[in-house]
Design a protein that fits this description.
- The protein has 345 residues and is α+β, with helices and mostly antiparallel strands.
- It folds into 3 domains: 60 residues; 126 residues, Immunoglobulin-like (Sandwich), CATH 2.60.40.420; 115 residues, Immunoglobulin-like (Sandwich), CATH 2.60.40.
- Helix content is 26%, strand content 31%.
- The strands form 4 sheets. A 5-stranded mixed beta sheet has the order 3-9-8-5-6, covered by helices on one side. A 5-stranded mixed beta sheet has the order 12-18-17-14-15, with no helix packed on it. It has a 4-stranded mixed beta sheet with strand order 2-1-4-7, with no helix packed on it.
- α1 packs antiparallel against α4.
- It starts with a helix and ends in an 11-residue tail after the last helix.
- The N terminus is likely disordered.
- Bound molecules: copper (II) ion.
- Copper (II) ion (CU) binds next to loops.
């Protein structure tokens, strides 16, 4: 029995205030919702960082290499790495020069050809010892061939151009077969011009470290996965093409079609942070880059940006509003339960 009309009004006002604070808390919680989506994404992204060790595939994964043959004369890149013993290798050759060039791969494991040989002596070596691949490419033309590698882990095979005096002038390179125990990572390319994840971590302790990245195109655009050969170099979209001309990429996977899956196989010489970018026109400028951390851990702040902090502030605010609302509601139930001060005249 609360006879007085004054406490009834106070109780009513307290109830209204409690309701107001409660509604405020719910509205704030709803407004805060979108902020929780990037957080979930960041967690997912963290989980997507795969770290697998020593899982040699039963059937060696096919490997695709892309080389430019130039009039320097040179092969770009001159070092092909990461293919497992016995793997099928496809070599795409692009003659960017005005002379004929050949890609001729020695089948003599760990044998370094003598650069002072005459073209005749070099020809006799290949006639005697054979080759794993031998393709001639006309100026401005491209060619591709697929062949199986010998099942010899860790072997190195030299490749040269047999056009007279090109090998002697430096047109040579090496294909290094992996030990078969490379670290496996997965990566996706998207039409939003992003790599997912854009941070790859390999907890390597011994170097060189053999790494195999499986790249899946989730979208329809063509992309590349092009890895800097030098640690700690962070490229800009103005300087990356001149940089890669000077420093041929460690890996340069060309994703050309939707849903394509391919591997980038490479060997990291020493611990560090290696940047990878997409060299498709406008993609790097649009944000298509990432970092590979080998033997180092990325700083914790690098994973989720400020969304986690925003989320915390929102949740704390919701809590405070709900607490105030609850206190007001409780206070409203007590109003009128106590004897009133006698009205003074
Ligand atoms: Cu791209």
């Amino acid at each position: 029995m609360r006879p007085s009309s004054v406490p009834r009004t106070l109780e009513h006002r307290l109830r209204r205030a409690a309701l107001g604070w409660g509604v405020g808390a719910v509205v704030l919680l709803l407004l805060g919702m979108p902020a929780s989506a990037p957080l979930a994404h960041a967690v997912q992204r963290g989980a997507a960082l795969s770290l697998e060790y020593g899982h040699p595939a039963a059937t060696p994964t096919p490997v695709v290499y892309w080389l430019n043959l130039t009039d320097a004369p040179a092969f770009l890149p001159a070092s092909l790495a990461g293919a497992a013993p016995g793997a099928n290798v496809t070599v795409h050759l692009n003659n960017t020069g005005t002379f004929n060039h050949t890609f001729t791969l020695s089948q003599a494991a760990n044998y370094v050809l003598n650069q002072s040989w005459t073209p005749g002596q070099l020809g006799r070596f290949f006639a005697t010892n054979g080759s794993l691949a031998n393709v001639s490419v006309l100026p401005g033309r491209s060619a591709a061939m697929t062949f199986p590698l010998p099942a010899r882990a860790g072997a190195s095979y030299e490749f040269v151009s047999l056009v007279p005096y090109q090998f002697q002038a430096g047109m040579r390179g090496y294909l290094n077969v992996s030990t078969g125990s490379g670290v496996k990572l997965t990566e996706q390319t998207t039409d939003q011009l992003r790599f997912l994840p854009d941070t790859l971590v390999v907890n390597a302790t011994t170097f060189p470290a053999v790494i195999d990245v499986q790249i899946t195109n989730q979208g329809t655009y063509a992309h590349t996965w092009t890895l800097s050969p030098l640690a700690g170099v962070f490229l800009t979209f103005q300087n990356y093409s001149s940089y890669f001309k000077l420093h041929p990429p460690l890996a340069n996977a060309q994703i050309t079609t939707a849903n394509q899956v391919l591997w980038a196989n490479f060997t990291i010489p020493q611990k560090g942070v290696y940047e990878y970018i997409c060299t498709a026109s406008g993609h790097f400028a649009g944000g298509m880059n990432g970092t590979l951390w080998v033997g180092l851990l990325p700083p914790p702040s690098a994973a989720p940006p400020s969304t986690a902090i925003v989320q915390g502030v929102v949740l704390a605010s919701v809590g405070v509003l709900l607490l105030i609302g609850t206190l007001l509601a409780v206070a409203s139930t007590f109003v009128g339960r106590f004897p009133q001060k006698p009205p003074s005249h």
